[in-house]
Amino acid sequence: MKIKFNWGTGIFLFLTLFVTACGIFIYFAFSQDVNLVHKEYYEKGVNYTDQMEMNARSVEFQNQVSVEEDSDKFTIKFAPEFAPKIESGTVLFYYPAGSSHDILVNLDAENKTVSVLKSDLLFGRYEVKINWVSDELKYEAVKTIINK
């Protein structure tokens, strides 16, 4: 039995291959991990005015926060005269290449220092976002570190 290859068979094979390729591409596209800058980017956009006000308030305190690097860790410290004014806060080690590698640490209520081991961080650039509350107002300082 000989199979006859005519224009109908060619169209059928072309459409079959085309639909299969589209299906494979759609599966591939949906299986990719999408890293947005922020998971709640819409809420961040709505509250952008609050963020601008917080940034304006925080400018004078940028020098009160420092990131010190030791051989095995990074330590976030506040100036001694400034630390008692802080009521609460967090430190976010933000890894721009993927949010699954971010590290969030609460500020210690006693001495207001945070240490993170270099071995807990991937190699590369991190933005350290230090947020704190003082007199019921929010503040933020952003520092950049490179883990080598």
Structural commentary:
The chain is built from three helices and seven strands; from the N terminus they run H-H-H-E-E-E-E-E-E-E. The strands form two sheets. The chain has a four-stranded antiparallel sheet. Strands 1-2-5 form a three-stranded antiparallel sheet, with no helix packed on it. Strand 3 (88-94) and strand 4 form a beta hairpin. It starts with 6 loop residues before the first helix and ends with a strand. The protein has helices at residues 7-31, 41-46, 48-58; strands at residues 65-69, 73-78, 88-94, 103-106, 114-117, 124-134, 137-147. The chain is 28% helix and 32% strand.
Task: Classify the helix fraction into a percent range.
Answer: 25-40%
DSSP summary, beta strand count? 7
Write down the Rg.
26 Å
> For the terminal residues, how far apart are their CA atoms?
69 Å
Low-confidence stretches: none
| Sheet of most strands | 4 strands, antiparallel
**What form results from the Cα inertia axes?**
elongated
Proportion of beta-strand residues: 25-35%
Structural class: alpha+beta
Mean pLDDT: 87
Q: Helical stretch count?
A: 3
Biggest β-sheet: strands ordered side by side in the sheet: 4-3-6-7
N to C succession of SSEs:
HHHEEEEEEE
